[in-house]
Amino acid sequence: MVCFACAAALLAAPRSRAQGSLLQVDPAQTKIDFTLGSTIHTVHGSFALKSSSIRYDAASGAISGAIIVDATSGESGNKGRDQRMHREILESEKYPEIVFTPAKVKGVVTRSGTSNLEVSGTFKLHGQDHEFTLPVAVTVDGPGLQLSMHFVIPYVQWGLKNPSNFLLRASDKVDIDIHAAGRFENANTPNT
């Protein structure tokens, strides 16, 4: 779910910086929030970024990598509801990761201000792959970036169980909001 936009920032980064670039996203500065509406109340919660590594070569246009969210980290502040979410809906013991693999980007990042892009790729949730396009806002500040996006996951359509019961009718879609900070690194330079 997170930093699916990271790939977009790399693809549209200035050529001098993007050639052989690696985009690193800081998990400590990444916020992945979800909102699920229902007839009684709206549920708010969050997930944690597990890892993110996107490589982009401006010369060839090749992109590779993945953004991985820890499905087991999902929490809404209600222990019983969270246990049910992990046991019956996400089945996070069986499917502990949510993965986005970027394939292409539409749009260009400007050297200053905010740019709007679309990042297309494969979204793997609950063991199933789904083609997905994310709208991404990227703000470049020197070697750093701020990424933000809002998108809707049709989780019931994608085969997950709806948590509704006889008292509560939950939406069959969940809203996701992501805010992240990252930086460009030379892909040929080892991390220290």
Uncertain spans: 1-18
State the order of secondary-structure elements, H for helix, E for strand.
Answer: HHEEEEHEEEEE
Strand content: over 45%
Largest sheet: 9 strands, antiparallel
Q: What multimeric state do the chains show?
A: single chain
Q: Give the C-level CATH assignment.
A: Mainly Beta
Number of strands: 9
Secondary-structure arrangement, i.e. CATH architecture: Beta Barrel
Mean pLDDT: 83
Topology (SSEs and partners):
Layout: H1 6-12, H2 15-18, E1 21-25, E2 31-36, E3 43-57, E4 62-75, H3 79-89, E5 97-106, E6 114-125, E7 128-141, E8 144-153, E9 174-186
Antiparallel strand pairs: 1-3, 1-9, 2-3, 2-9, 3-4, 4-5, 5-6, 6-7, 7-8, 8-9
Question: Quick summary of this structure?
Answer:
This protein is mainly beta and about 190 residues long. About 10% of the residues lie in helices and about 50% in strands.
Protein traits:
disordered N terminus, 192 residues, 52% strand, Lipocalin, 9-stranded antiparallel beta sheet, mainly beta, 3 helices
Task: Outline the structure in words.
- Helices cover 11% and strands 52% of the residues.
- It is built from 3 helices and 9 strands.
- It has helices spanning 6-12, 15-18, 79-89; strands at residues 21-25, 31-36, 43-57, 62-75, 97-106, 114-125, 128-141, 144-153, 174-186.
- Residues 1-18 have low confidence and may be disordered.
- It has a single domain (6-186), classed as Beta Barrel (Lipocalin).
- Strands 1, 2, 3, 4, 5, 6, 7, 8 and 9 form a 9-stranded antiparallel beta sheet that branches.
- It has 192 residues and is mainly β.
